[in-house]
Specification:
Layout lengths: L1 E4 L2 E4 H9 L2 E6 L2 H4 L19 H4 L2 H6 L1 H15 L6 H12 L2 E6 L5 H5 L4 E3 L2 E8 L27 E5 L10 H10 L3 E5 L11 H7 L3 E5 L12 E3 L3 H12 L6
Parallel strand pairs: 3-4, 3-8, 4-5, 8-9, 9-10
Antiparallel strand pairs: 1-2, 6-7
Bound molecules: ligand BV8.
The site of ligand BV8 has 37 residues, from helix 2.
């Protein structure tokens, strides 16, 4: 049996598996925030940053070389986030969490939109751009003086530069984050991977852990990715349409 909802055909066996799933893991990437207006990493950077490659800017060496440029890039992205809101895909994942007995959302996104949508069990694999930390002591700093010079603000305690509390390329993920996501993936019966190009490790390895443990793997992405080969179901569409369609097909809204 096949469900057609919101124009997307979803197999009856997937709906049944979702409806009866006991432990669901979701891995998200920048594509899930695209419909909120947050540029993905594969989107060309625009404006002042058009001449930069995020893979270059999001590194410790870029910050060491030009702390102000990197600080300003994150400050602009932080400011952009004040203008955006969670989309229907974020909200559908929060609804899904409420429907299944055990749920974990592992996100590569640093925009905080899953929490704003109401998701609770979240692992931020790559940190959160809204938080700022001391580049020397690594503790989060909530208030700082805007600098008079053309440099990033400094830690009020030790005067080292402040930096965004995100994981740059060539940096380790927050302790325990990957382990928690990996353990949940190895123990789940269904894993949904949505909005990620599957290029960045170790996050991109998470769906394989689920697959190896016998879970059903569902990919939600308008485009094929290196993870498509291990997906049992590929739903080729935008997550803000497909995710609500998936949840609505599994738990149709009561028609009062
Ligand atoms: C690590 C935070 C151990 C910052 C990010 C050489 C030296 C050192 C390391 C490496 C190396 N070679 C490889 C590595 C590992 C490296 C890596 O994987 N590199 C890649 C480029 C090959 N990984 C690391 O460095 C990680 N740490 O390995 O530590 C170590 C330590 C020292 C030395 C060696 C190893 C740290 C990785 C974390 C980096 N930080 N973000 C910030 O945000 O500024 S990564 C950042 O890019 C995002 O967080 C995200 O993870 C990644 C982008 O991926 P996506 O989210 O998938 O987004 P993308 O734009 O790529 O794709 C969007 C997708 O959405 C597309 O598929 C598109 O089709 C789809 N889409 C579009 N619209 C929609 C949609 N889908 C659904 N709906 C839509 N509407």
């Amino acid at each position: 049996m096949r469900f057609v909802t919101a124009g997307y055909t979803i197999s009856g066996s997937l709906i049944q598996r979702l409806r009866t799933a006991k432990r669901v893991v979701v891995l998200t990437g920048a594509g899930v925030s695209a419909e909120s207006g947050v540029p993905t990493f594969r989107d060309a950077l625009t404006g002042l940053w058009a001449t930069f490659d995020p893979l270059e800017l999001a590194t410790p060496s870029a910050f060491a070389r030009n702390p102000k440029l990197v600080w300003d890039w994150y400050a602009e992205r932080r400011a952009q986030l004040l203008q955006v809101a969670p989309n229907a895909g974020h909200l559908a994942l929060a609804q899904l969490e409420a429907r299944v007995p055990a749920f974990l959302l592992a996100t590569q996104n640093v925009d905080g939109l899953h929490a704003r949508a109401g998701s609770r069990e979240i692992v931020e694999l790559h940190g959160n751009i809204a938080r700022v930390r001391c580049s020397r002591e690594d503790r989060v700093v909530k208030r700082w003086d805007e600098p008079l010079d053309a440099m990033p603000p400094r830690c009020p305690a030790c005067q080292a530069y402040l930096r965004p509390d995100v994981v740059w390329f060539e940096e380790m993920l927050p302790s325990g984050a990957l382990e928690r996501a990996e353990a949940a993936a190895r123990d789940c019966d269904l894993l949904i991977v949505a909005g990620t190009s599957g290029e960045v490790y170790p996050a991109a390895a998470i769906p394989q852990y689920a697959k190896s443990a016998g879970a059903r793997v569902v990919e939600v992405n308008p485009n094929p990715t290196p993870l498509s080969a291990l997906a049992d179901d590929t739903l080729r569409g935008p997550s803000a349409v497909v995710l609500p369609a998936l949840v609505d097909a599994a738990w149709p809204a009561r028609k009062d």
